[in-house]
Structures are given as C-alpha cells and as structure tokens.
Amino acid sequence: MLDKNGIAKRIAKEVKNGMYVNLGIGIPTLVANYIPDGVDVVLQSENGILGMGPFPYEGEQDADLINAGKQTVTLLPGASIFSSAVSFGMIRAQRVDLTILGAMEVSENGDIANWKIPGKMVKGMGGAMDLVASAKNIIVAMQHVNKAGESKLLPKCDLPLTGVKCVKKIVTELAVLEVINGGGFRLLERAPGVSVEQIKNATAGKLIIDGEIPEMTL
Questions:
Q1: Does the CA dihedral 107-5-8-72 come out positive or negative?
Q2: Which domains does the chain have, with CATH numbers?
Q3: Which end of the chain has the lower number of beta carbons within 10 A, N or C?
C-alpha cells in the first residue's frame, strides 16, 4: 500500500506540461515535491500564489511564505503573490486546469464531501466549494478507508456535500480509479503489492473491473 507521499507521487504523473494546477490542503500539497523533471507547470495556492515550488528544506523556511494550509512553501522564478480576491477570481473564471483535493468521502456519481463532519467544530468550508464548482478537472487524493476500516468510496456520501458529480479520478493508498458516466468506480491501477480482491473489499460503491488491472508505477 502507498503512504501519503506515494499517493502524491502517483498523482504528480497526472500533471501535464503547461497546466495551471491548484493544490488543496493535506495530501495534495505533497504533489509539489514530485512534479516530473521536464514538466513545466504553474502551481496555484488559493491564498494568493502562482508559481509555488516544493516544500523548503529544514532551516530554509520563511514563516511569511505559506500555502492555504499554513505550511511554509517555496516560490519558483517568476512566481507572483496577490490577494485572495484575485486568486478566487482566477478560480471562478476557470483559469485553473486541474484541481487536486483531499476528501472524506466520494460517491460513485463523483460527489465529494471534504469539509464537515457533523458534531465537530469547523472554521468553515474555505475555498472548497469554489474549487469544485469551477474546476475543469478534479483529482482526489484520499485514504480508501477510514480509521475504523470502513470504505470512503460509497454509493452515496453520508457527510455534507461540497460538490456534486465533479470528481473525475481518485488516487488512494490502494488504487487509481476513475468515476464513469452513469455512476461507478472503474479500477485503473493497483498499488504495489495490493490485490484486486483487497480493493473490492475496501470499496462500498460500485466497482467496475475490466480485464487485468496493472500495478501502478511511481
């Protein structure tokens, strides 16, 4: 099974030359560390950065330079910093080609729940609703099951929704899956050492398996 860095490394392979990419809080922020050599992309942080680089090395952090999750980051040559209002103007105008988000649940229709657990205090939805409403393409980075071992890929989300029918692809510690029209998770790749049977047992929503499923390469 993959750890969080493994999930981020696999998602980085989905990033194509020339893309503007928004990285959400959590596992998605790690993708910045794994952009393949020779792939020229611009990473956007919703708090007002274009041209975000990988995380800084220990001792080189600048406490004033942070991403939306309040983690210290670096800037690449040509980067720019601006207000949150300008940042969300870019997002709402659909200038972002790919959005990578974390999630608590995803349904087989591509619905996403990633902002609130009833009964727990939250500061608010943040930019998640704008991102899912405006993104051209959404990839979710998430754990396949919760701490109790229950599937987070469901027929229908139980938690309050952030967006409806918006997720295109999911990468978990077990697999790469795509959400298909009409509903269902098509299994595309297995994590190293993970069997199709393990993925079946961990997926509550409709799982579609066509032929032999290759093991992912990182």
A1: positive
A2: 4-173 (3.40.1080.10)
A3: C
E-assigned strand segments in 48-110: 49-52, 75-81, 98-102, 105-107
β pairing state of 75-81 and 207-208: unpaired
- Of these residues, 46, 105, 108, 173, which one is catalytic? 46
Over residues 55-65, mean pLDDT: 94
46 is catalytic: yes
Residue 169's closest CA among 155, 187, 182?
187
> In a 10 Å sphere around its CB, with 0-12 CB exposed, 13-18 middle and 19+ buried, how is residue 57 labelled?
exposed
β-strands 112-113, 105-107 pairing? antiparallel
CB-based contacts of 212, cutoff 8 Å, min separation 6: none
Question: β-pairing, 207-208 with 185-190?
Answer: parallel
For residue 134, give the nearest of 171, 105, 166, 111 by alpha carbon. Answer: 166
Residue 210: pLDDT above 90?
yes
| Band of residue 19 on the pLDDT scale cut at 50, 70, 90 | very high
Average pLDDT, the chain: 93
